[in-house]
Amino acid sequence: MAFSATNLILQKLEPVTAERFEARLVLDQLVRGDILQEPGREIETVWFPETGLVTIASENVAGDIVCGAIVGANGACGAFEACGSRRSYSRASVQIPGQAWRIRAAAYRELFDASPALRDAMHRNVELALFEARQCIACNAIHDVESRMSRTLLEIAERSGAGPVLQLTQETLAQMLGVQRTTIAVTASQLQRANVIRTWRGTIELLAPDRLERLSCACRQTIAYVRSEIYGSDSSSCEA
Ligand SMILES: [Zn+2]
Asked: How far is the CA of 147 from the centre of ligand 1 (A)?
């Protein structure tokens, strides 16, 4: 296939589906601030990020925004909904610029119906996303902000492919962790004093990823283990 995908789902496609996908995929830029999906709107496009980061967030009537998922090369935006109600109930917005393959939702549905490998890859992606969401609920209840922030920074760096310098505001990080912006500021300054990270205008640099690993809550290892189990297990029995 001409496109050399780093996206975890596209990597799982068998050659026949990859060729069909390739004819309908367009590589597009993800620009910081771009809104890919709005609550209540029909899903018209499915996105498979190669680099960059998209947050899937909910907003209440008071205007509070809480991020429910972060999507980079590990997943897709709109893929679940395109085959379900065909509507979005969250806002998907680009936080870290990058590139993504996009495909029309109708074309995606055709390929989904035709390809056991694509269905298997998406079912595993849903399974992992659900597990991460459940783990996140437990994490919020029992783990402190520093350990959650350490884990989240490492996940952002990995999923976005951005390397150690993240173009990310503290406000966005607060939405990802579901805490006040001032809490993030206090925790970030603690990590900065310890030379683990460095922050300046809209940027967070990971100076010592190995120390962030040690500071991360146990959810990091738990999620890594479940990810390897879900993606490492044999899928042949599902393709009959
Ligand atoms: Zn945790």
From this structure: 7
138 CA distance to ligand 1 centroid (A)? 7
Q: How far, in Å, from the CA of 176 to the mean position of ligand 1?
A: 13
Give residue 63's region: left, alpha or beta (phi > 0; psi -120 to 50): left
- Closest listed residue to residue 182, CA positions, set 172, 192, 174: 174
What tens digit of pLDDT does each residue of 160-210 get?
A: 998 899 999 999 999 899 899 999 999 999 999 999 999 999 999 999 999
Q: Distance from the CA of 11 to the center of ligand 1, in angstroms?
A: 29
Cα–Cα distances in angstroms (integers) from residue 232 to residues 16, 133, 224, in the given order: 22, 20, 12
The rounded distance, in Å, linking the Cα atoms of 71 and 220 is: 16
CA 86 / ligand 1 centre spacing (Å)? 32
The predicted model scores a pTM of 0.89
